[in-house]
Structure formats: structure tokens, C-alpha cells
Amino acid sequence: MPTDPPATDTVPNAVIAYRRMIVALMAGGLANFSLMYFVQPLLPLLVDVYGITPAESSLALSVTTATITVGLLMAGPLADRFGRVQVMRASLIASGLFGLAAAFAPSWAALLVLRGLLGITLAWFPAAALAYLREETPPGAHGRANAAYIAGTAVGGATGRLLPGPLAALGGWVATATTMSLITLAAGLALWLLLPPSATFQPRKAELREVLLGTITAPFDRVLAWLCLAGFTSMGAFVAVYNAAAFRLQAPPFELGHAAGWVYLAYPIGIAAPYVLRHLSERDGRGHTTALGAALLILGVAITSIPTLATMFGGLGLLTFAFLGVHSLLSGWVVDRAARRNLGNAQASSAYLLAYYLGSTVAGALATLTWQQVGWVGVETLTLGLAAATLLAVLLASRFDRNPKVSLGQQPTLL
């Protein structure tokens, strides 16, 4: 009679499946975020290619982050109805195809439409990936798996800022956009081949009314409202500095040309921030540690205002470290607060992420307009104000939250 395989035979299979899952999700996270952000260091190039103003060029990123909010509302119902793996595959393949079309967009309006569609499909991947990780990894392995996925997204953000410069020097906009889109399609293929199918997922029809109402009403809790505001202002300050930095590095006294892209090597400095600030928060409390991160955000903005290449590099590095650390703590705080108040975790996370991307959209566009009309002094004033508002919002959230030192909970994502 057939017998079950011995336990020693099943362990390697489980390990192989786990490793395949981690590699696939890291590749997907890298491609997802590099395709989203690769236009940021190329804003001056878009000005030349499409004959637009610096303020208009920021729309290439802002329209994507704006439509991500639409995609986030769609992602949950789609993943519940069709499955996590299917939605992740569809996200990368559709985003890669929209990216390829954008590479050959004949007009600025066409490029914006395609980047808007790309934002919708990009949003599906992180939402589905988070649900998949929560459902398919054992409790003991979930923290490591989530950290690996976060690392993939952070590397994607770095790739999206470092790779476009050399590619643009070699082949201009078309070559750069085509390459970044092919990377996303390759990640989609890797997902198709490597990612194990869901073992525990059961499809269900989601009620759109419930999803929307839960997202809208979550900030009625005053702590969640302040946390959402902190997400808006911290992301706004971060994107605003990076958007305007692309132009500042082309202008006197820097005049770096394509070499400006190397300044974005400061971005990987922030990859360790979630782990460092998490450790500090376990010792000193989440409220105090998040406030420390917000203070570092202010300091990072201030340092970038000193007109030397060294301070620009150091300021961007500190800014990135502070932002990624603050975002990781805020996102975990939102979920924990929602759980303690018997609110929907997914809806509270969606409300936070909607505020987060709205901050990117509004402040990113405003920063390039401010640069065009006022220069770096105006950008500095804008971003220092946003960073200071982050600190104030964190302090108020900590004051009103009566249990700030509880477990950090599940972080929804690091976008």
C-alpha cells in the first residue's frame, strides 16, 4: 500500500517552495517600484523630449501616484475574487505593457494617460503580495519573509533612481523606459514560473460598499487621522525633495548632467532604517521613536540646502533613512491602532496609503512648480514645513494614543 513520504523528504520541498516565493516576491517588488519611480531622475530629460516646463514634467510621476489610489481601492476586491497570485501576475504584466507603450508615447498627453493607467495596475501588486505573505507563510517565518519583500521594494526604489541616468546617457528616454518596462515583464515571468500557488486562499466576492466606507471612515478615529496626516506630510516632503533635486543638480553650482544620477546612491542608505527604528521602538516606545525619525526628516531637508555635493549626498541619505523608518513605524502603528479599536485593518491601511500617495502627488507637483518659480529656497520652505507637520502629527498621535508601546503589529507595506 502507498505510504506518505517521510518527514525528511517533505522539509526540503517546503524550503524550496519558500525560497521560490521569496525570490519571486523580491523580484516583483523591485520591478514594481523601479517602474514607478524611474521617471523621477529623468524629469529634466522629459522637459527636453516633450518641450514642457519643469512644473509639467513632475506630472509623469504625480499622475502615477494619483491613480495608484484608484488601484488600491480595486486591489482588495480583485485579489479576493480572482486570487492573490493571479492579481500579482496581472499587475506586473499589465504594468510592463503600459510602460512599453509609454516609452513610445507620441505626445505628452499620451504619456500621461499611459502613466496613469500604469499607476492603477502597479497598485495591485503590493496589496496582493501582502495578503499572500500573511496567508502562505508560517507564523515563525512571516517576519523574515515580509522583511525580504520590503528589501526588494527598497532596492526597487534605489534601482529606479540609479539605473535611469546611465541608460539615458546611452539611449535617451526611449531606451530607458523600454529597459525598465522589460525588467517588469521579466519579473512577471519570474512570478509565473516561481511563485507557488495559494494553498489557503478561498475566493470570495467582496462588497465594494464595505471596502469604500471602511476606508473613508477609518480616519474618524483621531489617532488614525493624525497618523494619516503624518503619512501625507512625510511622503510629501520626501518626494518633493527628490523631484526638485533632479533639477537642482543640473543647475549651478552643481551642473552635473547625467552624472547627477550618482547622487542617488544615497538612497540605499535608508534600506536599514525599518530594522533600526523598529529596534529602537521596542526599547523606547513607538511614539518617541517615530518622533525621532520625524526630527531626522527635518534635519535631512536642512542639510540638502547647503550647496555642496557632499551635503546634498548626506542630506538625501539622511532624508531617505528618516522617511523609510518613519513610514515603517507609521504603517505598523495604523494597523495596531485599528486592531485595538476594533476597526478594519485593511481599511485603515488603505486610508493611510491613500493619504501617503496623495502626499506624493500633491507635494511632488508643487515642488517642481516652486523650483521653477522661486528656486531651492522655495522648495526648502515647502519641505521643511511638511517635515515639521510630520513631527507635530506624530506627537499628537502619541499623546492621544493611550497604548503606544504595544506590539508593532503587521506592517502593511513599504512603498
Walk me through what this model shows:
The N and C termini lie far apart (52 Å). This protein has two domains: 9-199, MFS general substrate transporter like domains (Growth Hormone, Chain: A, Up-down Bundle), CATH 1.20.1250; 208-415, Up-down Bundle (Growth Hormone, Chain: A). It has 15 helices and no strands. With 415 residues, it is an all-alpha fold. Residues 1-10 and 404-415 have low confidence and may be disordered.
List its traits.
single chain, 415 residues, mainly alpha, Growth Hormone, Chain: A, 2 domains, disordered C terminus
Could you provide a short overview of the structure?
With 415 residues, the chain is mainly alpha-helical.
The major beta sheet can be summarized as: none
- The helix-strand sequence is HHHHHHHHHHHHHHH
**Which bin fits the share of residues in helices?**
over 70%
CATH topology of the largest domain: Growth Hormone, Chain: A
CATH architecture of the largest domain: Up-down Bundle
Q: Per DSSP, what share of the residues sits in E-state strands of 2 or more residues?
A: under 5%
Structural class: mainly alpha
Task: Tell how many strands the DSSP assignment holds.
Answer: 0
Indicate the radius of gyration in whole angstroms.
21 Å
Q: Give me the CATH superfamily of the largest domain.
A: MFS general substrate transporter like domains
The rough form would be described as globular
How many helical stretches? Answer: 15
CATH class of the largest domain: Mainly Alpha
Instruction: Supply the number of structural domains.
Output: 2
Low-pLDDT stretches are 1-10, 404-415
Mean pLDDT: 82
Distance between the termini: 52 Å
